[in-house]
Amino acid sequence: MSIDTMSHDQAVSIHAAERYVLGELSDAEREAFESHYFDCRECFQLVSLEGQFLAHAREALDPEPEKSWLAQMLLDLRRPAPVFVSALLLCALGIGAYQQSVISGFRSPRVEARYFLPDAPRAGAKQINVSRKAGLSLSVTLTPKPEFVSYRAQIVAEPSGKTKSTFSVSPADGSVTFDVPADALAAGEYSVRIQGVTKDGTVSEAGRGGPFELKFVD
User: Fold this and answer.
1) How far apart are CA 71 and CA 62, in angstroms?
2) Could you tell me which residues are beta bridge partners of residue 215?
3) What tens digit of pLDDT does each residue of 147-195 get?
4) Residue 143: CB partners within 8 Å, gap ≥ 6?
5) How far apart are CA 205 and CA 195, in angstroms?
6) In the chain, which stretches have pLDDT less than 50?
7) How would CATH label the architecture of 112-216?
8) Cα atoms in the 13 Å half-sphere on the side-chain side of 58
9) pTM of the entire structure?
10) Residue 3 belongs to what H/E stretch?
11) What is the three-class DSSP state of 55?
12) What pLDDT, on a 0 to 100 scale, did the predictor assign at position 185?
């Protein structure tokens, strides 16, 4: 069948859209239909719908779906032994290296730097010189008040007054103590603000500590 041009009636009569999607048109029919359906909204929509249907049908009837990890492992077991053994060896080496790095981190000594920050320092900011790897422990005087049900400590950058870190704290023996990794802060001047929280959620200042100047020795 030789067709130079194709009308809409001709396309419908030979089921051109369906056959086009299935690849059943001859070269002449395909060229004639392509010249027609780009200008025919009805045929263009029909080709799009047929193409989507065919794609979904192929996906639903795919005889070889993606293998699960278990199926893939069983397939690997059937492969030549050197390949599978090499994979296991690389996996074991990776796990061993990770475990050694974690264990060495646990074994490394962590220096604890403890400082008490009075509310009214006599000679300006307290100097704190620590390693970036040290654990920094700060203590501030605090007298508990019955209206507060919980407390929190804030490290405040000076002189900007910007809060850098906030910690939940519990008073003990007239003071509060909290730990913070030294490298969580940049070198600079800070102070500590203690806030009390009432039962209804009201927050107000309950105490202060500092100021202190943090410097790193490494």
Assistant:
1) 17
2) 129
3) 999 998 998 998 888 988 888 888 888 888 888 877 778 889 998 999 9
4) 171, 174, 207
5) 4
6) 1-3, 81-82, 84-86, 102-103, 105-106, 108-109
7) Sandwich (2.60)
8) 7
9) 0.47
10) none
11) helix
12) 83
Give yes or no for a contact between 192 and 155, defined as CB atoms under 8 angstroms apart: yes
Q: Which residue ranges make up each domain of the chain?
A: 8-60, 69-107, 112-216
25: alpha, beta or left? (left if phi > 0; alpha if psi -120 to 50): beta
What is the b/e burial string over 69-102, where b = at least 16 CB atoms within 10 angstroms of the residue's CB? eeeeeeeeeeeeeeeeeeeeeeeeeeeeeeeeee
CA distances from 35 to 47, 50, 73, 80 (A): 13, 18, 51, 55
Q: What gap in Å lies between CA 131 and CA 129, rounded to an integer?
A: 7
